[in-house]
Write a structure and sequence with these properties.
single chain, binds S-adenosylmethionine, Rossmann fold, 9 strands, 223 residues
Length: 223
């Protein structure tokens, strides 16, 4: 598969409209039933005043946080999604690729009480990005990541590597998205190498599902 990192963001440029439709119609059952609530509770549980939503997409989480009096800032690498988030009332929402954030090429503010990434860390080398986010946290701040649960999506092949999401089962026109599968231990190693210590790990689950719907990691900068 050629240049999966750039194909990944490119796929979001193609899929932005279908994604907005899917999120705003609540058509993804796991989100509706489990994972939206899980990340919201994890963020609210830290009682942050200022939150950065990394890879915010069309901004649903920004809106939920703003409704609760939290100052929520978004950043995403797709212009259509950023526009949709702004048009739905969220501000500020920055347009920047993760690569630009690692390079410090875009000012997205700093001293955040919490930075969250909801199913938004899909590329291979996440350590530089996590380290860059670490530097934007206020003292006492935390990072909250919700992601695909490695056990649930391994499909019998528990090895790191690029996979392809085809969005079969989703309605609309979708371009396949390359994403990087990482194991539980490599998630924890990435956090460690970016200067974080894990403070909690959750496996949000639907009572009628035999497997967890996501992996939710809360981490704090190592002192
Ligand atoms: C599965 S969506 C999640 C969106 C949002 N967090 C949510 O919960 O609905 C993944 C998001 O990551 C963003 N993204 C992926 N790769 C990126 C990159 N290299 N730079 C910036 N954003 C990126 C996409 O544009 C997309 O909005």
């Amino acid at each position: 598969m050629p240049a999966p990192e750039s194909d990944l963001l490119e796929s979001w440029h193609h899929n932005a409209h279908a994604w907005i439709e899917a999120i705003r119609t609540g058509s993804i059952e796991s989100r509706r039933e489990v994972t939206d609530q899980a990340i919201l509770l994890a963020v609210l549980g830290r009682q942050p005043e200022r939150v950065l939503d990394l890879g915010c997409g069309e901004g649903w989480l920004l809106r939920k946080l703003t409704e609760r009096g939290i100052t929520a800032t978004g950043v995403d690498g797709d212009a259509t999604l950023v526009e949709a988030a702004r048009a739905a009332g969220s501000s500020p929402v920055h347009l920047a690729s993760y690569e630009a954030l690692v390079d410090g090429a875009v000012d997205i503010g700093r001293d955040y009480d919490l930075i969250c990434a909801n199913f938004a860390l899909l590329h291979q080398d996440i350590i530089p990005l996590l380290a860059a986010m670490n530097a934007l946290l206020a003292p006492g701040g935390a990072l909250v990541i919700q992601t695909l649960h490695p056990w649930s999506v391994a499909g019998g092949d528990y090895q790191e590597g690029w996979r392809l999401e085809t969005f079969s089962g989703f309605t609309g026109q979708w371009q396949p998205m390359p994403w990087y599968f990482r194991t539980l231990s490599t998630w924890l190693t990435a956090l460690d190498m970016a200067g974080f210590a894990l403070s909690s790990l959750q496996e949000p689950q639907h009572p009628q599902s035999p497997v967890p719907q996501s992996l939710l990691l809360v981490a704090e900068p190592r002192g």
